User: Fold these one by one.
Assistant:
Number 1:
Amino acid sequence: MHDGGEAFARRAAAIAEEAYSRLVPFFGAGPGNDVVEIVCDNSIDGANGLTQAQPFDAIRLFAFSPESDTDLARYDDWLRLLIYHELTHTLHLNHAGLLFDIVNSVFGKSWLPNNVLPQWFIEGLAVYAESHFTGGGRARGADFERLLRVGALEGTLPDSIGGLTSNPIMPPGGTWAYVFGGDFLTWLAERHGDAAIARFVDEYGRHVPLSLNIVAKRVFKGDFPTLFSAWREQRLIAAQVLVGERQRLGL
């Protein structure tokens, strides 16, 4: 940070401590013995952040408030939203069982089961958390809702959960995993409870990687392809109901 950055960094540190005190009880564990290093960078004119969990925990925050026409513009406090999002990544990716803790203690932090989850889950979980723990968040934002509604009406919703792993040119493009993953996980939380989300993170971290649907059946009572189909159908119905309401009003 250049001159004047100390106040920003102090505020970021205070919010990070607040977020840590709320997220750790929710997920049931912190990042082990690691100190989470946070770097505030004002060299890029764009609101965003980056998180790494290997070989050590670090978060890089871009100290630039979101522009009004971006998806991050839905916030009560943009810095708080950003920190909750990135710290969720830290706690999520570090969640591992005893076997992995032993391996990592010997060879360094080299194997984290949650790190191989698909992008739609990793980013979707952080979007869910930023919306659950702050007064803003993209899962409750009009922009994401619009993209979901248009996708349902124009037939561009992913046909299967496998489609969530792509980043096509069509809208929402690079935010594909954030929009659909965030809404899908928010839907799961509404259907099965917030505690089920934390339980999935915990149980998957204790299993052999790639056991995604095995853990989903235990926690959500169904595999992800089946759950995704139910979510997709609900989105399609909701969009058609809204169209019907608007047409009856003559719009």
Note: The two ends are 50 Å apart (CA to CA).
Number 2:
Amino acid sequence: VFLNTTGDALDDSQQLEFQRFIQAGGGYFGVHAAADTEYDWPWYGELVGGYFNGHPNGPNVRDAVVEKTEHAHSSTAHLPERWDRTDEWYNYKSLNPDVTAVLNLDETSYEGGTNGDNHPIAWYHEYDGGRSFYTGLGHTDESFQEELFLKHLLTFVSNSKKI
């Protein structure tokens, strides 16, 4: 689990061990700022599925609408079709085309988005022998007391062997 990591989090030997873990069938779970991590390690960028490319116009924490794109996935089955949330939103770059988005950010619900209609905010994919799940939600302390968000996290973790 990379929980709100930022910057260069792993040294070279840790990167090698982490890569071996994934290649042996392990799973990666990135939360929010995990997409703002390891910019100089292309393997990690492909694993996480995209990199942070800035915040929308200030303030960083604001209301927006999250749309469910995968209705039966364990991390979203309990969520409403359109979920009004307050969080810190990210724009992304270098999005891996092989990811499956489970949630999309509706850029018409706030100002400053740069990804357009295709603005995934949570996704998963198989990568290099392992599994990867990322959610851009989870910046605010309040998120970790919100029932829908916690279930979004926990249902993926409890079903992590089945992407």
Note: The first strand starts at residue 2 and ends at 3.
Number 3:
Amino acid sequence: SEWGGYEMEDAGFLKEDILGIKQLDKFADILKLIGENGGEVPDIYNLPHDPEVYRYFGNGWNGDVFQLGSSGLTEYTKSLKPQRLEDLIAAVAVYRPGPMENGYHEIYVKCKNEGRVPEYLWGTENIAKDTFGLLIYQEQVMQVMQEVGGLSMKEADDVRRAMGKKKLEALTKWKSVVQKGFEDKGATQAQFNEVWDAVLEFAKYGFNKSHSAAYAMTGYVSQYLKVHYPIEYWTVALSYANEE
């Protein structure tokens, strides 16, 4: 019988998820074509910040863009009007069922573009400033556990793992430890409870920022190549497309 990932880890093995990303093959083909056409081949892992690339995202010109080219995320980037990589990373993380059920995608846009004032949970102002008060990444919850709850980095990672596995009973054993850390820093029990409840809600759908960042950066590279090398970009896009 086949073992699940968590069973493997409990038995002492290391589970690795290896993804085959077709987009990386596309990048290689685009760069090869740029060189063959006499162009200067860009270093796609050190691209500059380019407002024109973000204008494309804001207009929803996301055709064949990795991860951000779906109809849903295309409409979202049109309302989001991203202006920095952090916005794209957040888009990938919030445009998912759990955060959307809680309205996070709409709150992010309202704070960014419509002057809504961010609301911060107690002690999270520095941790959530880039995401307008929203806790949308597992790494942010780890920071809360460390910087406000007084846990070590290892303990905060244990909390993250419990959240990732939806092991809520494993989370509850940390509650009194974290509460003491909060109260030592001046939080009331009500303020702590509000943060803890938010963390438990987050545990149902939390996303890790490193994953979201890798996807967002790959999407940015796609859009950058489209803006600056449209002939090579679309030649490769069409060569990979199915016949229809």
Note: The mean pLDDT is 92.
Number 4:
Amino acid sequence: DISTVTGTEYDCIGAKGTNDVGWHFLPGTSERYLHQIDANSTSAGYWNVDSEHPEAMYGRFARGFDIDNGKNALYFDVDDAFLRNTPLNGAYPVTIEVTYFDSGKGSWQLFYDTKGNANKRSTKIICTDTKTWKKATFVLNNARFANNAEKNSDFYIKNTGSTNVIFSVVELSRPPQSSAAFITTPLTS
């Protein structure tokens, strides 16, 4: 809707179309305590992934693999402030939740930095072509997160198949802790 996008910010309230274009934005993805490393050279940006289901919460903006162009991974750095400016070293478990579009027969795997292995493999996820958004949850009990994994990342999602997979959200959480860094609530599996 060109007439509203070129007008004032208030003109967009009455837009008759979707305007997801902006100028002078900060580069990168929306992030808080979790930064994607070299996003444009290691993965591809996607928009309006699941247009058949406009009510879907995910997929308006996404990143994923672009195998034909050698973009096969999403690398992440956990902000040191999130971990109290020291490597985690397995002091407590953290959870990584990855929301992906289950389309085609692609596959992927989460790798992460541990004390004994800078590129520890987790469970391999294989798409089953349900054409729905799914969430994979990983509870890591031995994460180090000292930027020793590939590309100096703390963890990464890597292609293990021959079909592109698209991701909407990658979330990192830790259990609530007291000021002395003790877990105050139990972590569910």
Note: The longest strand covers residues 94-102.
